Amino acid sequence: MVDFELTNQRLQELVDCVDHPKKVKEGQPLYCGLDLGTAFIVLVVLDESGNPIDCKYQFADVVRDGMVVNYIGACDIAASLKARIESELGVELDRCAVAIPPETEALDGGAVRNVAESTGLTCTAVFDEPTAANLLIGTDNGAVVDIGGGTTGVSVFKDGRAIKCVDESTGGTHFSLVLAGAKGMSFGDAELYKRDPEHHKEILPIVSPTIDKVTSIIQRACEGYGVDEVILVGGTAELNGIEDRIQRELGIDVRKPNHPSFVTPLGIALGCVREARGPHP
Asked: What HEC string does 139-155 produce?
């Protein structure tokens, strides 16, 4: 079973530096991870040891079901985040990694890379999202499930290597649609309502059928691979109690770290650090 102690420590450091970025030395190498999500775009900056230096994010409606649908909007937001961080740190960022949902590289990998490079960053690597998340999580024989806004991506790991990666269209957007219908509110209001932890106990039974759909995606992806633990990440994994319901249906351990919405962005940035270190097994 994966020990979350170091993971949670790094995630807390990342969350803390959103408002309190760390100082950097002139000429210090910095490495970025750009995450284009359905609800938010996140830019993470790390030092050469993988320690969080800065992080900025912004609400965005430029990606749907894992695909970039507003390219100019995505470029503008990414450039704005980069400019804010450069202003805070007093340096110019020059390299980053990005990530996409599994099995979508032929459809959208180029768009995500191009968004990053439109800001002046050199894109050094493109990962699938759950595999990027596992660069932080570090499971050897489990499944990492990234429940994003539009899709659920699953990467199954054996001896630390991804042996299967899948992505299906069910995520936080679908939770919000169900909640909006049940409570007679607009989609936008449902999105805001869903993000408030005080409402999670009320929301959980309303969206349980959608959680069960996510569970079925995980179950199909893991079938026949002897997966002994499932780790949830992504913005939708912030919902309190989601891991308990999925575990009850799957019958295997299901866990999540603190701040699961920041796992994939941090993992992407760790991938940028890894690429800079050269060949790896």
From this structure: CCCCEEEEECCCCEEEE
